[in-house]
């Protein structure tokens, strides 16, 4: 019987066969490693070639993104073959312009197992002994932040924070069960270990402090005041958590489509000045592009120019990334705002838009652009 494959995403990225690390060469090729990690974390959905290409080659110019992605998949499959990791064959499914991690694969993924155990442990409908068992297993499984090698990747920040919040919630639930058994020493140990792994949590700090006071002197005069403060902090924490959830739901009224944000010029101006402020404290460089579209003057159709502009704006919106913004400045000009790693990369973006815009129509049109970096809020 072959040994089970275990994949660890907490405090690193490691694939093991039994207890033995395999596919260690994956760490030598960052793009292949990021490609596999992204599919793992987003295993519940199919990822388009475009999304993967923007993740892996943002700002780089490739004539054939699909070929570049197939090369990464080939490298991963060669590693699997060389290691004899048969359980990983078919790990990545390719289908109609998408890639997806095979959810039916018989492998253990620590982040998913942790979440399932933590959710079971906070379920009030099962016995306290079972809850305690599940929570202890979940807490032991959390070894640190999710995929720390990619901690600066914007897509990972919210997912890592969600796992951290689940971990804190599991620890708090476990502490409540320990309180009913008067296990103060264990409470201190669990809280301090959680603080070392997950960082600051005022509630866990107070739980540890109160447990230490009970250990030192159950009748300590300061214990009641600490408890009163703790109860107030806990009540406010729950209230703020609920309010933050409501506010987020209120703010994101619509599902975000997978294309650039199209707005009017007034909104574009507000976004421009917000980006200037953000750029003053960020390493990212935002660029402003202005595109002029000149149409055939001999066409007698009064709606001719409007049809051309709408077609080109739609083309630009689909080609740009989901975090970019664009607007029609007037009847013949389109303003675009987007991040890029260099001026050359920014020019490359506008060149691709120009080529695609001209290909969208058989009409004789002229497209000219200019691009420049935003001035920061300090300029």
Layout of helices and strands:
Elements: E1 5-8, E2 14-17, E3 20-22, H1 30-41, E4 47-48, H2 49-57, H3 65-83, E5 92-95, E6 98-101, E7 107-109, H4 110-121, H5 128-141, H6 154-179, H7 184-198, H8 202-216, H9 223-251, E8 261-262, H10 265-279, E9 286-294, H11 304-319, E10 325-328, E11 333-339, H12 343-359, E12 366-373
Parallel strand pairs: 1-7, 8-10
Antiparallel strand pairs: 1-2, 2-3, 4-6, 5-6, 9-11, 9-12, 10-11
Uncertain segments: none
Give the helices and strands as they follow along the chain. Answer: EEEHEHHEEEHHHHHHEHEHEEHE
| Biggest pleated sheet | 5 strands, mixed
Q: Please provide the count of β strands.
A: 12
The number of distinct helices, counting runs of at least 4 residues, comes to: 12
Quaternary state of the chains: single chain
Which structural class best describes the helix and strand composition?
Answer: alpha+beta
Mean pLDDT: 87
Strands ordered across the widest β-sheet = 8-10-11-9-12
Gyration radius (Cα, Å) is 27 Å
Distance between the termini: 66 Å
Overall geometric form: globular
* Fraction in helix: 40-55%
* Share of residues in strands: 5-15%
Number of domains: 3
Q: What report would you give on this structure?
A:
This protein has helices at 30-41, 49-57, 65-83, 110-121, 128-141, 154-179, 184-198, 202-216, 223-251, 265-279, 304-319, 343-359; strands at 5-8, 14-17, 20-22, 47-48, 92-95, 98-101, 107-109, 261-262, 286-294, 325-328, 333-339, 366-373. With 379 residues, the protein is of the alpha+beta class. The chain folds into 3 domains: 5-105, Winged helix-like DNA-binding domain superfamily/Winged helix DNA-binding domain (Arc Repressor Mutant, subunit A, Orthogonal Bundle); 110-251, no CATH class; 261-373, Reverse transcriptase/Diguanylate cyclase domain (Alpha-Beta Plaits, 2-Layer Sandwich), CATH 3.30.70. Strands 8-10-11-9-12 form a 5-stranded mixed sheet, sandwiched between helices. Strand 10 (325-328) and strand 11 form a beta hairpin. Helix 1 crosses helix 3 (65-83), helix 2 crosses helix 3 (65-83) and helix 4 packs parallel to helix 6. The mean pLDDT is 87.
């Amino acid at each position: 019987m072959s040994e089970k494959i275990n994949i660890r995403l907490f405090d690193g990225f490691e694939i093991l066969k039994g207890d033995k690390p395999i596919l260690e060469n994956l760490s030598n090729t960052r793009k292949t490693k990021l490609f596999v990690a992204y599919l793992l974390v987003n295993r519940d959905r199919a990822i388009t070639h475009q999304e993967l290409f923007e993740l892996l080659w943002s700002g780089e110019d490739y004539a054939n993104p699909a070929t570049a992605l197939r090369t990464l998949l080939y490298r991963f499959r060669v590693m699997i073959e060389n290691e004899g990791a048969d359980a990983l064959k078919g790990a990545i499914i390719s289908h109609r312009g998408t890639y997806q991690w095979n959810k039916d694969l018989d492998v253990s993924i620590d982040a998913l197992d942790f979440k399932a155990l933590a959710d079971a442990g906070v379920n009030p409908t099962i016995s306290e002994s079972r809850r305690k068992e599940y929570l202890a297993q979940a807490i032991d499984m959390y070894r640190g932040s999710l995929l720390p090698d990619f901690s600066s990747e914007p897509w990972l920040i919210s997912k890592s924070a969600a796992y951290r919040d689940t971990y804190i919630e599991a620890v708090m639930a476990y502490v409540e069960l320990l309180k009913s058994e008067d296990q103060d020493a264990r409470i201190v140990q669990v809280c301090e270990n959680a603080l070392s792994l997950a960082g600051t949590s005022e509630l866990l700090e107070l739980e540890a402090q109160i447990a230490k006071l009970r250990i030192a002197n159950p009748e300590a005069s300061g214990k009641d005041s600490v408890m009163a403060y703790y109860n107030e902090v806990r009540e406010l924490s729950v209230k703020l958590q609920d309010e933050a959830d409501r506010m987020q739901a209120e703010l994101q009224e619509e599902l975000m489509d997978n294309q650039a944000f199209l707005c009017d010029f007034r909104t574009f101006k507000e976004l421009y000045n917000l980006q200037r402020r953000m750029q003053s404290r960020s390493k990212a460089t935002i660029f402003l592009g202005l595109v002029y579209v000149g149409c055939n003057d001999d066409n007698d159709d009064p709606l001719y120019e409007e049809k051309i502009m709408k077609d080109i704006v739609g083309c630009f919106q689909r080609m740009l990334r989901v975090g970019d913004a664009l607007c029609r400045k007037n009847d013949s000009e389109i303003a675009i705002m987007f991040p890029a790693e260099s001026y050359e990369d920014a020019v490359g973006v506008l060149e691709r838009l120009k080529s695609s815009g001209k290909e969208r129509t058989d009409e004789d049109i002229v497209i000219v652009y200019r691009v420049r970096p935003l001035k920061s809020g300090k300029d």
